[in-house]
Model the fold of this input.
Amino acid sequence: MRHLKARLITHYLLLVYNAAVMRKVFMIVTCALVVSAAAQQAAPPKQTPPVKVNVLNVCAPTDAEQKEISTALATIPRRPQFSADFEVARGHSALEGSSSDWVRIRRDFAGGPFSVGQFLFSSDAQVSRETVVLVSKEAKGVTQIALEDEATAPVTASALLSTNTPVNRISLERFGKAHLVLARCPEGDQSKYEPLFGTASEIMAAYRTASGAREVVPAELGRLSLGIGPGYRPPRVKPMGKK
Done:
């Protein structure tokens, strides 16, 4: 009988202890849920970052933009001094049903404000294009200048390179700012921009000559049309057998 009473008392004490523990656990969990809910309510809702769209007025830049273009063109040496380092690349690119052949000539400057000058010739079924790209040594301000001309009539590379086709697009890449572009536009009067286009055309002619494009581009396009390259074997030529 005494043992039975002892067991009952022990069992009762365990029940009381467990109930007290459960009450404490319940209070802790309840407090945690309240704090979590309050934190969620206090936290500001997530917002989608705004999308910034820059609209380029390529046909009619402002007076300040014209001055910036003029200043950038004035920094380009008309008689570039290149180092001995150079690179010539050629290729054929296909994209969305169209394809083009291209040749790129890369020259390093021996000194001055620019580090690299590139002359790029590309041609597809509709247009042939010449592009000069000058990369500045400066990491701020105008970091890159690109000049471009094109011919839409069917023309060979030799014919286009032998003439001084007027530049129809000037592009400045600026650090931390949108590109600054001046382009030929059929509509509107662009007579006041002729000095800028004229200067850009003079620079294009100088770099066409300095890069050796008149000689290099037709030769590289000829190799491209023949498929000459690493591992190439001309058709109808059988490999020599061992004797």
